[in-house]
Amino acid sequence: MDAARFTDVGLEVPRERAPHKERSTASRTTARADGGKPARLLIIGAGSGPSNNLIRSLRAGDPALVIAGCHSDRFILRKSAAERNFLVHPVTDRAFLRDVARVTERARVDLLIPTTDAEVRALSRARRRLPCRVFLPSRPVVELCQDKYRLSRFLRGRGVAAPLTYAVSSLAGVPGIFRRLGRTPLWCRVRAGSGSTAAIPVRTPQQAQAWIAYWSAMRGTPVRSFTLAEYLPGRDFGCQSLWDRGRPVLTKAFERLSYIAAGGHPSGVSSVAALARTATDPQAQEATTRAVRALGRDVSGLFSVDLKEDGEGTVCVTEINAGRFLAGTNLLDLTGKHNMAVTYVQLALGERLESLHEPDQSADHYMVRDVDTVPGVFHAEEFFSGIEDARN
């Protein structure tokens, strides 16, 4: 292995592995930059599970893509699946955008792709100063979607099903919220973040107060960061939707069946599925379309929508991750007719695409995930192949 090379941007880590030929049912397409050359991408947050999953999807759909990565943590960056990798300042540092601009010029990047909410927020605000393309919703849309309380009120005000949610202004005000909602359990969580951070179902005001007080005292999370909402006990969906100037181009969904490390979460759930399957539920698709359309007449970009059923079977929008892919995107990219990750790149580079449809969204495909393993994508029939049943 060659020695790592230090640059004025940071540590450039050489790639150790040869490209892996990914099995995929989606048709391969080509994403070309100006001049007809293969597109050159920079994945921010490289080395994390979601970023490596995204790179896997991109290579499966268009092996000609040239992919670089960057991260502020050299240990995480060392795991990156990109061809070239650059150490940069954290996204919260003022030097982050300068570093990204340097990497963009050095690697001749055509398109920046963020993988976290913080990166989406930073690039959305600075898009006019960036030396290459981004494909992100407008700054107001990003900021609305990253505040779960504001988003819930916004959607409900426009007739989109979303859980009735109240902001916590003080611990003393918690019993009043319980009385207004009128039923238990309730869902207690913070207004921003991912992965079910600080989320828990609660049955009494005392439970909610203790949980919020703990996070305030031990984690420094302000009491006013919390919300209480009606609890949704039904099926759990993740839906990715690509839009171009107010027009839906491609929408695909999966249903979460179990969760990674669920036993270690007080809530028992997470947005990170251990087992998921492709979904064709028309309610989930319709709710996603209505929610994104409510954000504006000319919205563009990627909208990753989380949805859950209430007690009566109505699919409700619980959050919209604007501008970034879901961690489970492999299930949507490696199955069906269209690879969403490559379609995203095509739209980002200005290609005009008609609305794309997945007739049956490749039903009966499953994704199996666990810590420290590459997500596996299988058709239902494969769970009966190569396995000997020794139970009888």
Describe the structure.
This protein is an alpha+beta fold. It has 3 domains: 5-135, Rossmann fold (3-Layer(aba) Sandwich), CATH 3.40.50.20; 164-230, Dna Ligase, domain 1; 236-384, D-amino Acid Aminotransferase, Chain A, domain 1, CATH 3.30.470. The protein is 27% helix and 23% strand. It has 11 helices and 17 strands. A 7-stranded antiparallel sheet has the order 15-14-11-12-13-16-17, sandwiched between helices. A hairpin with a 2-residue loop joins strand 11 (236-244) and strand 12. The longest helix is centred in the middle third of the chain and has 15 residues, at 205-219. It is globular and about 60 Å long.
| Extended strand count | 17
Helix and strand run: EEEHEHEHEHHHEHEEHEEEEHEEHHEE
CATH-derived architecture of the largest domain: 2-Layer Sandwich
Instruction: Kindly name the structural category.
Output: alpha+beta
Provide the CATH topology of the largest domain: D-amino Acid Aminotransferase, Chain A, domain 1
Determine the N-to-C terminus distance: 49 Å
Average pLDDT number: 90
User: Uncertain runs with pLDDT below 50, 5 residues or more?
Assistant: 1-10, 13-20
Please indicate the percent range of residues in DSSP E strands (runs of 2 or more). 15-25%
Domain module tally: 3
What would CATH call the homologous superfamily of the largest domain?
ATP-grasp fold, B domain
CA-based shape? globular
Percent of residues in helices: 25-40%
